[in-house]
Amino acid sequence: MTYIAKPSLHHPDLPKNAVGHTRRDYEGKISTLCAGCGHDSISASIIQACWEMNIQPHRVAKLSGIGCSSKTPDYFLGNSHGFNSVHGRMPSVLTGANLANRELLYMGVSGDGDSASIGLGQFAHCMRRGVNMVYIVENNGVYGLTKGQFSATADKGSKSKRGIINSEEPIDMVGLALQLGASFVGRSFSGDKAQLVPLIKAAIEHKGAAFIDVVSPCVAFNNHPGSTKSYDYVREHNEAVNRLDFITEREEITADYAPGTVTTVKQHDGSILRLRKLAEDYDATDRIKVMNYLQERAAEGEVVTGLLYVNPDSQDLHEHMETTSAPLNTFGARDLCPGNVMLEKINASMR
Amino acid sequence: MKRIESTNDFVVKFANVNGSGSASANELFARAILRMGVPVAPRNIFPSNIQGLPTWYEVRVTEAGYQARRGGVDLMVAMNPQTWDADVKEIEAGGYLFYDNTKPLPKSKFRDDITVIGMPLTGICNATYTDPRQRQLFKNIVYVGALSALLEIDPAEIERLFSEQYKGKEALLQSNVKALRLGRDYALEHLDCPLGLRIKRANAVGNKIFLEGNNAVALGAVYGGATVCAWYPITPSSSVAEAFIKHCQKFRVDAATGKHKYAIVQAEDELASIGIVIGAGWNGARSFTATSGPGISLMTEFIGLAYFAEIPAVIVDVQRGGPSTGMPTRTQQSDLLACAYASHGDTKHVLLFPEDPRESFELTAKAFDLAERLQTPIFVMTDLDIGMNTRLCEPLVWDDSVEYDRGKVMTYEELEAGRDFGRYNDVDGDGIPFRTLPGTHPTRGGYFTRGTTKNRYAQYSEAGPDYIYNVQRLLRKFETAKTCVPSPLLYPAEKPARFGAIFYGSTSPAMQEALDVLAARGIHVNALRVRAFPFQDEIADFVASHPWVFVVEQNRDAQLKTLLVNEAKVNPSRLLSILHYDGTPITARFIVEQISQHAAARTVVPLKKVVS
Description:
The structure holds two protein chains of two kinds. Chain A is α/β, with parallel strands linked by helices. Chain A has helices spanning 38-52, 68-71, 90-100, 112-117, 120-129, 173-180, 193-205, 231-237, 287-299, 317-321, 333-336, 339-349; strands spanning 60-64, 81-84, 105-111, 133-139, 142-143, 149-150, 184-189, 209-215, 238-240, 242-247, 262-266, 272-277, 303-310. In chain A, the strands form three sheets. Chain A has an eight-stranded mixed sheet with strand order 2-1-3-4-8-7-13-9, with helices on both faces. Chain B has four domains: 6-198, Pyruvate-ferredoxin Oxidoreductase, domain 3, CATH 3.40.920; 211-393, 3-Layer(aba) Sandwich (Rossmann fold), CATH 3.40.50.970; 412-484, no CATH class; 489-601, Rossmann fold.
């Protein structure tokens, strides 16, 4: 696909959003991933979510580590600054960028090798700190760019393309995120855009560390019988706990819901999350119950998806640090340097 | 036995047990002498331990103002039985031993060629205090009191220091004064005061300040406009970040809102620290980390990324003994090569070598300008000797008229006006491209940052010519760096000299003293203090103009010499290494001895002098 240039001229009747952009304005370069790769569907969902939310593309910073997933920020939001950093270290680079300018929207894209193996530590500490970001793990259970080795999220007992059975326990990133204090945790499937787009939108509006684990089959190395991250397997075992409708403060609520089937969660900025319950008694704001439920379902081999947990009263790192509302990167010497008169006083205190 | 007799020029060493509260008492001793107008050069010699292991504090009293360790001990205050034998052995012949004689020691534990002064410190404290902690803590103040009598230190200066320290804490003030007088009165009554070593009021301190290097670095970061700091605790650098926190709380809190114009993260490790610094630098905030050798090792992948993706970052390396965990509480200059070439692939980095706390302040502040001007990591190479010792140095100065140099950042207006933006495009020949900050313009100036190959417009490319273009440009940028970094300083000999000497960093005070001593002995040496890497041409010229050049360093492998040969292309056969690397700071005595030996071996003695 990579040899086909994307046309820069678009149909004049393409619908525009409130900030005057067509959906195409949120696209990036043509993907160099394999045809059918789940990651490209996730990029498309990010594009859709940003367009629908009227986000100015250049006010987004996209950061990633290394791997197939980490290449994808080049394939969406072409007018945004992107940073393809080092393997497993996107969280720290994003944290620094976020500290420098709290006004941008930070989107971290990573993979299961990048975040569950080499970068597990940075993933954990980023969640703990409550960095205001959307953290998407494109989870395919396999190392694609190096051709098919198991990753740390591969399920025990699953089979590689070469026929090897994985004997190691998988790392459940959703479970970790919940334990580590992420204030928004979701799981979805790259093949379910209807579920994924509202999740991304809610995550963007969320203040704090918003983590979404997206099972995203690798068509080249992990889409065969015996894999638990294949399209077929995930479709068969997907158990959605809720259906999310994301409603910004400004939108009129028009949808009709049967009584008792909907929970409403209002986030800090006034945006409303309407969760249509699919699982009985599932309460996405009760962290302990959520953790128990996920453990139980995982033991049954189910892949639980949906908005799994949200803390509507979350805080982010800047609030913890009490940083100024003006971004730190806007200050000059006049704001930052105490000057020579003060230095004379400092000198005097050291005599 | 000939007693050492000296006024305002001697070395006192305190041998203590770590965690016994001796540090503040010993510093009090040093400050009291300073207040009498007599310069001191104190040094902590401490273990990697919180409680129980031996620790020493060495105070060189030096009216001449020499700030290096002299070597040798004239008065040992031996408070630690664990190290008694070695401590007693270290005293110069004719020197003095002050000790706690509450419990008698056999005669074999002493020497005949020194003056021994025993005082029942434990006995006095046990008789005066009932609380065990007080007995221990006030013992230190009691010996300071006794020393004030033995060395003729004005007790009023000590009491004045107490009243400054315990302002508003009357009970603490009184109990310290009481302990001081207890020791002093005992000494005046029972001991033979004064010793041959004395303090006499002088006027040699002037307006100098008494400042610790790590604190100076932190102040430099505040003045240099750092807003983001990420760090991981590691000796001997931790107090840089801790001091930065303290200074930010004082100078960077918005008076109206109480909000902070800084963000400091104690990260999970050094990898995250440097990642945060790079992320912030990429996004236009001045950011830094402080670490030591093992931290540098962990950061190297990221440092290569910052070099190749061209992101400003400041890294303070407070060097300690390596390799591996090495000697965490000892000093060395042994990270030069690790920092100069940090990371895989072809990398070269800018290093700055401050000589003392004052220059640590100045060069740290400057490092932020350099990082943004050159869009690359800048290393501030201090060490434990500078960082964790309080040093008498010239006052700090700041020029309020100077604006920060933010380097080549393309603005919204320039982009809007249609100025061509190529992130890695060298538009004016200095090797430094323009950058944009994220969020600047809706449709122009956005780019994708990566550590892999790209063309001059930051588009992904694996093409050889694109790679060559970028790495050659980085070399051009390194040439530009030579014109921005501080130039070397020449210390010319008073008489024509055949020998040259190159030195840098914390070797400076010992070297300057050694030059004086050598000159007095008729050995004249032109000296050059290197303050930065890459090396300017005058460094190679200096080597070329001397038949022999000593390169004085505090590492085993002559790392600066390696860099000089490799990068300044100087003739290695002219270079004679003088290397000190046992973990203690280099001394003038060591340098003098080494240079004298080399000089003697290389001095052609006229034939008639040999036969006569």
